[in-house]
Amino acid sequence: xxxxxxxxxxxxxxxxxxxxxxxxxxxxxxxxxxxxxxxxxxxxxxxxxxxxxxxxxxxxxx
Length: 62
Hints:
Elements: H1 12-17, H2 32-35, E1 40-45, E2 48-54
Antiparallel strand pairs: 1-2
């Protein structure tokens, strides 16, 4: 089962060591509903935010 708002960690070593509060970088493969939940998107390069972009279509998905 898949979900647009959740991630599943299949790598057992990572899954067993990740704790609440840890940060993970996840690349979603389907983002329409997720992007719709936020006012801004952030472009990140080498771990640094390089640009903040307004999600002008926020709340427009039916």
